[in-house]
Amino acid sequence: MKSSLKQLILAASCLAGVTCVHAQQYTTLEPVGNTTTKPEYLTVSTPTRSTNVVTESSSAAFGKRMNELGAGLIGRSYIYATYDYVNYDDDVLDNTNGATVRANFPLINWLDIGVQYSYQGADDQYTGYGIIDASGTTAYLLYDDDLSANFFWADLTFHTTLTSVFNIKPYARAAIGVAYYDYEVSARDFYDHSITYEGLGWDDTVGMYATEIGVEIPIGKIVTISPFAGARWYFDSDYDSEYLFGGRLNVYLTYGFGLTAAVYTDTDSNMYASAGLSFSF
After folding, report:
1. Residue 186 burial by Cβ neighbours in a 10 Å radius (0-12, 13-18, 19+)
2. CATH number reported for the structural domain that contains residue 111 in this entry
3. In terms of Cα–Cα distance, which of 223, 57, 197, 176 is closest to 130?
4. How many domains does the chain have?
5. What is the mean pLDDT of the chain?
């Protein structure tokens, strides 16, 4: 009788939305009177359940994952979005503003795959400059211009953990991508400003490949810094290669949400900065 009643109560608890795993700890049978001669004297006492069971479970799961993977992003599934700013050490091209969206997924415990899209744009960088067309017969005075660049990347990140205690993770990344540049200008005749020209400019699509090495270093349980160095090359020799070095920062806030930022420079003394939000899962 006890066994049948207990199974019935467990089944009813599951149907009522209580997980079967925890049903027994919330449901107890208390004997009242002489249960040997009168087994019907059994009553059910159900203590009040905690209303934060789901929250505690989620917090525990996230905490366990933090301990396993560390505070950084390497080796995790994550997405992030950042605002990007580039200050060029150039007398003409001043700066660009843009954004990056990235997603990363671990394939095995030492290899991640990632995809990334970035946009950079600038307005009125060459306004006031005079140019001569390819034939050398017409001179223009620029009065409006828009420069944009779109970058698409796919990459593999190889990583390891030096110590299981601190989760220091050296990594090496190889990437391949494509860039699409678009430059549109409006101009006046250099000598007769009443004559205007629209639809001038150029666009170009070029393939790229890149490498990066670095190390992800935890600072406490929720912060990592990642110094790195990298290089980017173009399949078209008309474009110069670029060599970069700098650092990234990731700070977890709660339940996988965090802040991410980066600052780096290149061998041409251009400065890059980005900041945004990340979510790991």
Report:
1. middle
2. 2.40.160.20
3. 197
4. 2
5. 78
Do 148 and 119 form a contact (C-beta atoms < 8 A)? yes
pLDDT in tens, 238-270: 888 999 999 999 999 988 899 999 999 998 889
User: What does the alpha-carbon distance between residue 112 and residue 98 come to, in Å, rounded to a whole number?
Assistant: 25
Sign of the torsion formed by the C-alpha atoms of 65, 66, 67 and 73 = positive
Task: Give per-residue pLDDT as tens, 82-122.
Answer: 999 998 876 556 688 999 999 999 999 999 999 999 999 98
Task: Give yes or no: residues 72 and 26 share one domain.
Answer: no
pLDDT value for 197: 74
pLDDT 10s digits, 18-65: 444 333 343 444 454 554 555 544 444 444 444 444 444 455 555 556
Give this prediction's pTM: 0.70
Beta strands 111-123 and 139-159 are antiparallel
Give burial (CB, 10 Å; 0-12/13-18/19+) of 89.
exposed
Inside any domain, residue 53:
no
Could you tell me the residue range of the domain that residue 28 belongs to? 2-45
**In angstroms, rounded to a whole number, what is the distance separating the alpha carbons of residues 96 and 83?**
11
Is residue 80 assigned to a domain?
A: yes
As a whole number of angstroms, the distance between CA 148 and CA 49 comes to: 58
Same domain, 19 and 101: no
Same domain, 9 and 37: yes
How far, CA to CA in Å, does 146 sit from each of 95, 132, 187, 241? 12, 18, 12, 24
